[in-house]
Amino acid sequence: MDLFEYQGKQYFARYDIPVSPGGPADTVDEAVKEANQAGYPVVVKAQVQVGGRGKAGGIKLADNEAEVREHAGNILGMDIKGHTVNRLWVEKASDIEDEYYASFTLDRAAKKHLLMLSAEGGVEIEAVAESNPDAIVKLHIDPVDGLDLEVARQSCIKAKLPETAVDGAAEILVKLYRCYTEGDCDLAEINPLILKPTGEVHALDAKVTLDNSAAYRHPEWEAFAATEVLDDREQMAKEKGLQYIGLDGSVGIIANGAGLAMSTLDVVNQVGGTAANFLDIGGGANADVMAGALEVINFDENVVSILINIFGGITRGEEVAKGIVEAMSRVDLRAPIVIRLDGTNAEEGRQILLDAGIPQEKLRSEPTMLEAALAAVSTANA
Amino acid sequence: MAIFVNENTKVVVQGLTGGQGRYHGLRNRDYGTNVVGGVTPGKGGQDVDGIPVFDSVTEAVEATGADASFVAVPPKFASGAILEAAEAGIAFVVCITEGIPAQDEAMTYNVLVRNHPGTRLLGPNCPGVISPGKCNIGITAGEIAQNPTADGPNVGIVSRSGTLTYQALYELKQAGIGVSTCVGIGGDPVPGTNFIDCLERFQSDPETHAIMMIGEIGGSAEEEAAAFIDANVTKPMAAYIAGVTAPPGKKMGHAGAIVSGGKGTAQGKMLALSEAGVKVGVNPTEAGELMTEIIRELS
Questions:
Q1: What is the per-residue burial (b if ≥16 Cβ within 10 Å, else e) of B262-294?
Q2: Fewest beta carbons less than 10 Å away: which of A32, A75, B61, B274?
Q3: H or E element at residue A231
Q4: How far is CA A361 from the centre of its chain?
């Protein structure tokens, strides 16, 4: 789950990472209230999960209440690269002496945590990696050892942070590492990490991705989940507990297993079609799960045909077929289904589908994944 | 021969008294696997369909001589269970649990590397391992796997995906091709066993004559495997990579299946494998056909 900047800053604050005083605002009046509380000048920042907010006019400096009203009014409702601004973050403006970059992620190849630190902050780290890779210090951290202050200090020195910033930055690194590990982040990034003329170091931005698998031990994430940016289809799938990702195509996809679902998308694409979604219904494919999946697919107006791709392992073909027949009796589908049922007892399963008396134009069976994809795509593209 | 597990492997199921553990543990036993015990703290002395249950892995090992463990417990207990098995001296731990936090996985992996170098972890979030006709640990349906023949040629399978693995097993069975061992390494970001660990063993396993590899988007494990293959694997290989059309920045069902910052794409992985001399199919069926051709040439 990706957090908005204001949520990231709230999360940072839990781990004592210094951020500017401020608060979220959904209206112009709320923005004024937050600005008055923080003290002028303030920065009014659009809360959208996309880069380039500043260039798009989504970040403005305001010296007084009138300017806050003007900017907040302009930014709220603004469209930034397809993201509508529904919320602002208003914080006290900071004097900036210098800007740095710091982040923690998991390096999957090394199977260790990775600190990336650079004296060139405030720009996209990918750009720095390309133009001046030596400006990024990378440090692998064994989770068993963790990160101590001295190692953090050495990294700051290696990254050529000025002497005045080293102590403050190192302290923040240790706190950010704690936030990343104890806070179960996939990514914890500060860009820019700023040095103020007064010598203090603090986080001017926050980019945090939380690991959904750890939600069970973070009741405080519930507030974040409530604002997660999902389209209507994804929201519906989430409520039904389905592994669903909305896409733009016209073939609705249901498969069992993440690998098979991904593979189904690929095959649809190979034969000239476009997938409307990714949907993994998992190992079992009972009637309830199948009905829920079909409801979500049916809700998507772009779907012209549906491709169900099931490989029976432990789940037997006849159980899957019964589930589909029952699900179809519960959901009134707009689009026709093509099913590929293979694996354990697939023939018995196909017989059950045949015996159910569902008209061929509503449900047909194809023996292979490729043939099923061809049939579904030809309907969708007709 | 086979790799990792064989007819002599003695398995203890951690979580045998739970729903998943009981279901799969008994299925594994019915397949012919030596399931010698179960572990559930507080339930020592009971039995599950005749399989004795112990309070700890250490007790189970002392009583049964188990050398492998099957971890089938919920995410919040999985790391503890894996480490308990390692501390009891278990050499091979299979963890099927899905949804373990990445931080726990990274920690567990590094603790194993540092403190328990004698223990190999397979998974988490994996279907397990099957050496057909000998031993099946995990959730693979044993009946879709073809037993290897004494003279071969047999195929060794290594895969990041569950259902695609079953599909590969099934297709090989339809073609009458035997499988030495099929290893599901799982779809999580920090797998205990990676492609290279398996490729290395398949290369030196006399019962394996060709290798099938199934990868997916995310991370760089396939690229690293390609470099290894180029330098070390002489047995013919076919491969398939899922996720060519996956949108960037989205976790495609598996926690580890994500294209981020232009890295981890299926295209890059397919190219790396092709350059290492692997025959890469554009869909699972084609990969299966490529493998059938390889076997025909070896026969």
A1: eebbbebbbebbeebebbbbebbbbbbbbbbeb
A2: B274
A3: none
A4: 38
Indicate the SS3 state at residue A68.
Answer: helix
Q: How many domains does chain A have?
A: 3
- Output the average pLDDT for chain B: 94
B254 is annotated as an active-site residue: yes
State the residue range of the domain holding B44.
10-122
The gap between the terminal CA atoms of chain B, to the nearest Å, is 19
- Say which amino acid occupies B9: T
Question: Does residue B126 register a pLDDT over 80?
Answer: yes
Q: Which of A5, A189, A319, A366 is catalytic?
A: A189
Residue type, B180: S
A286 and A357 both lie in a single domain: yes
CA distances from A73 to A34, A78, A83 (A): 14, 9, 17
Last-in-domain residue among A35, A61, A92: A92
Q: Given an 8 Å threshold on Cβ–Cβ distance, is A263 in contact with B164?
A: yes
- ipTM for the complex? 0.91
Tokens of B247: 């949108």
Do A109 and A202 lie in one domain? The reply is yes
Find which of B166, B194, B251, B263 to mutate to test the A interface (most A CBs within 10 Å of its CB): B166
In a domain, A4, yes or no: no
Please count the CA atoms within 13 angstroms of the CA of A44 that sit on its side-chain side. Answer: 34
Are the CB atoms for A363 and A337 separated by under 8 Å? Answer: yes
Give the pLDDT confidence score for residue B136 in this predicted structure. 98
Nearest by CB: A269 against B141, B166, B245: B245
Three-state SS for A49? coil
Residue A285 has pLDDT above 70, yes or no: no
Q: Verify that A195 and A291 share a domain, yes or no.
A: no
Amino acid letter for position B276: A
Q: Do B253 and A243 touch (CB under 8 A)?
A: yes
B104 lies in the same domain as B154: no
Does the beta-carbon distance from A266 to B245 stay under 8 Å? Answer: yes
* Contact criterion met (CB below 8 Å) for B155 and B178: yes
Cβ distance of B244 and A269 shorter than 8 Å: yes
Domains held by chain B: number? 2
Q: Which tokens go with B125?
A: 């979030």
- B112 within a domain of the structure (yes/no): yes
| Strand ordering across the sheet containing B237-242 | B135-138, B128-131, B178-184, B154-159, B210-216, B237-242, B279-281
Q: Which two tokens mark B170?
A: 């099934």
Q: What is the pLDDT of residues B90-125, one digit of tens each?
A: 999 999 999 999 999 999 999 999 999 999 999 999
